[in-house]
Amino acid sequence: MSNNNNKDNLLLSPITIPKSMSSLNPSNHTNVSETTRNDMNRKATIVIEHLIQASDVSHTMQHWHVYLKWNERFFEECAMAYKEGRAGRDPAKNWYTGELGFFDHYIIPLAKKLKDCGVFGVSSDEYLNYALENRNEFERKGEEIVKAMMEKVTASMQTHETRLGGDDDNV
User: Fold this and answer.
1) Rounded to the nearest 5°, which phi and psi values hold at 118?
2) Distance of CA 49 to the CA centre of its chain
3) CA proximity to 129, closest of 110, 108, 113
4) Nearest-5° angle of CA 45, CA 47, CA 50?
5) In angstroms, how far is CA 163 from the centroid of its own chain?
6) Are residues 61 and 111 in contact, defined by beta-carbon separation less than 8 angstroms?
7) pLDDT digits (tens, 9 = 90+) for 157-167
């Protein structure tokens, strides 16, 4: 008998599964699979949400010099907007306490969530460690840093005004 004839020798009969074995019922497997799929989709959505949140503030979870570079640029942008009348608040007044609060209530909890979701391996440990280190470093040096950033913005604006004034004199 050849292998091609084996299918002709099959006898198909209906199978009745006792209620005591209902967990083996294929119709229940669909629900389990659907529940598992829904759980996986929910978890994937949470991970993606964490990634989107982290992408906006990733500089806070990197080396100190990376954090400082982007923090300074954002400060300068806010300070220039204030000095030019495009913003209502002087960022220098609350920048120090605002950054510490930002680390405590947003960055560090987010870094912990990235670690807890478990998809980033040892990188998530680095994100959390950098966030904690940057927070502590900013607590130690932040007031001086804010003062220096404000001086830089003021000097930059004076240079800009001098250039504009110089150009007007030549016209």
Assistant:
1) 75, 10
2) 8
3) 108
4) 110
5) 40
6) yes
7) 887 666 666 55
Per domain, the residue ranges of the chain are 57-156
Q: Which residues contact 53 (CB under 8 A, 6 or more apart)?
A: 110
Residue of 68, 59, 81, 69 whose CA lies nearest to 153: 81
pLDDT, tens digit (0-9, with 9 covering 90-100), for 79-97: 999 989 999 999 999 999 9
| Residue 103 buriedness (CB in 10 A; 0-12 / 13-18 / 19+) | buried
Sign of CA dihedral 103, 106, 112, 114: negative
Using one digit for the tens of pLDDT, what is the confidence trace for 21-63?
445 445 555 566 877 888 888 888 888 898 898 899 999 999 9
Q: How many CB atoms lie within 10 A of CB 114?
A: 23
Q: What is the pTM for the complete model shown? A: 0.71
Cα three-residue angle 45-48-49, rounded to 5 degrees? 85
| DSSP summary character for residue 109 | H
On the 0-12 / 13-18 / 19+ scale of CB atoms within 10 A, 2 is: exposed
129's CB contacts (< 8 A; 6+ apart) are none
Average pLDDT of every residue of the chain: 82
Distance of alpha carbon 60 from alpha carbon 5, whole angstroms? 69
Query: In whole angstroms, what is the distance from residue 14 CA to residue 29 CA?
Result: 19
